[in-house]
């Protein structure tokens, strides 16, 4: 069977409402008069209120905050847990926008697809049961373990030109390959979209990347983004959208563009996008979505799916694809880009051993039909010469559809003939879920077609140097086993004597016989009806999942100021969301707020003493006890002692991780006073009912410290609707000194309602009850 063609009706939930979007854009153009890039068109057509002015012309990019209405949400199994737990506490019967859950990160690769999948389902049963029951209750599409990797499935099933989507994973931008904006976010942002709350984004700057020329036979879209990563570095895309255009875009397959968009995350870009192309249309048709393609054709005819002629970019990068060569990036950072022709020299200069220890292909970045048929071409050339790969060669298909189509078209058998081990359709080694049986005890090098190569990411071994390349380069080098091998010019000795040289790989963009869907069991019901009677499955003794108790509002019985708080500590210097809620071994507790809160601020520095993870508790008995930061927070919680935190510059920079706001609130934090906040984290604090305040005079930071009592003066005015009210802090020191400190706030009227209700979710729930 080929991929079932979906009807107009089936495609309703996956076709962007183009007429509405185009009208929204026309409304926005009443107050935005410059020529628009494609990214701006997609953003402005998704404004929550397109008729409302968002800021001064010329001061939008990089400055204005946009309130947006995303059309869809996708969540992977690790991050979906807290997103759903929060969504549940909003009390809605279903998600306001279509949403999907994908079980991919929790599957461990050991010895092959079938047994790995079976074993991982047992190990993670409680998480999968929870996700599935929540999906059923709220009408969310549930892609069970084995169905594939979130981004591949989104591209195959949900992505559409001109759409705005959020995903709780950093490589969500992969869907940009279909000419849309897909943005990776934290669970709290996904909950905004699912509850219909405006989703806020600082207007990104737009980088234009103009592609001309034609790629050579060994060069692929992966090499383009590896080259760009080298140019822009891991921070070059921060707060920016990468918008590609020019004749070089039209020459790429849709899945090739998706690979480029996927790895925009490696330069920190908000997302990446491309104007609608014939290859996108062909991909939509091949994946059964002809009605979406027809609707996109019409929208494109009205100029919606490409930039206005003469639109300006904040930076313009010119790339001639004819000059591009294959790249190998790494080790340990994706922006250390070395052209293939120089890589042998680079290995020698660094004194590394010339041996490759493993080669891995696939993942969400590179498991398209084009990738797989290209590597199968190389494998078949080598097989004809009697060669097998010299090192373990692992292949992770991105989805059941890709796996089944590879099998039908003899791609899999060709790869297996030369020694490949095909793993489950899941993240596996890409996210460190690789139980490497041949774990080397010394420095060794692996080559992958994945997207990230931080230390220890793949096999958990800090001595494994991980390099990124295209699937064809990875595959060719697996046959030589040498890091200095350049398949474009070098030969491999044959056991029978003589030498073998690869011809340039040839793949096919799309399967001539169509995609085959594979096992039906993996496919969810499309836009399922919510089943409100479904019981959400959480074992009460679970160490991984815990229902969220709604946070209580401090404003009850006529109280109009925050309760008197104790200052827990004064945090010194850089404090990112990683400092506030560490990752690594804590990831398994993402769905269990009590357990994960044990990591609160454990790498933060106390300005009073300069030590990391040390705080002081002046207990009710007057004795000062030294403890860890979560230790003191727990004592405060046990005593029902509300508390506040004093923090430094740019507090909460880093990611959108909602745990960094949930955890202090869980322990009883009501207020954080900063020299400055990172905006996303500041909003996350507001969502959880924590009041973020800024020192008017940054020197006041040093005047408040551990054990001080703090009261607010002025919150009552905020609650009465005086949004420009200033709030003062009345500080009482241990020695009895009392003084006031002026602060500023950035609360909007909506956000004051969140504070008043105890959290944004409480507020949403109260609105439902009306
Ligand atoms: Fe999974 Fe790796 Fe992609 S973790 S989502 S395959 S980046």
TrEMBL record:
UniProt-recorded Gene Ontology molecular function terms: 4 iron, 4 sulfur cluster binding; aconitate hydratase activity; metal ion binding
Alphabetical list of SUPFAM superfamilies matching this protein: Aconitase iron-sulfur domain, LeuD/IlvD-like
Aconitase A/isopropylmalate dehydratase small subunit swivel domain ranges (all copies): 565-695
GO terms (BP aspect): tricarboxylic acid cycle
E.C. code: 4.2.1.-
Free-text comment on the cofactor: Binds 1 [4Fe-4S] cluster per subunit.
Domain Aconitase/3-isopropylmalate dehydratase large subunit alpha/beta/alpha intervals: 40-481
UniProt keywords, alphabetically: Iron, Iron-sulfur, Lyase, Metal-binding, Mitochondrion, Transit peptide
Keyword Iron-sulfur: yes
Keyword Cell cycle assigned: no
Gene3D superfamilies hit by this protein: Aconitase, Domain 2 (3.40.1060.10), Aconitase, domain 3 (3.30.499.10), Aconitase, domain 4 (3.20.19.10)
Pfam families xrefs: Aconitase (PF00330), Aconitase_C (PF00694)
Top-level EC class as recorded in UniProt: lyase
Source organism superkingdom: Eukaryota
GO cellular component, as recorded: cytosol; mitochondrion
Main location (coarse class): mitochondrion
Cofactor: [4Fe-4S] cluster
Location(s), subcellular: Mitochondrion
InterPro entries for this protein: Acnase/IPM_dHydase_lsu_aba_1/3 (IPR015931), Acoase/IPM_deHydtase_lsu_aba (IPR001030), Aconitase/3IPM_dehydase_swvl (IPR015928), Aconitase/IPM_isomerase (IPR050926), Aconitase_4Fe-4S_BS (IPR018136), Aconitase_4Fe-4S_dom (IPR036008), Aconitase_dom2 (IPR015932), Aconitase_mito-like (IPR006248)
Family membership noted in the UniProt record: Belongs to the aconitase/IPM isomerase family.
Name of the protein described by the UniProt record: Aconitate hydratase, mitochondrial
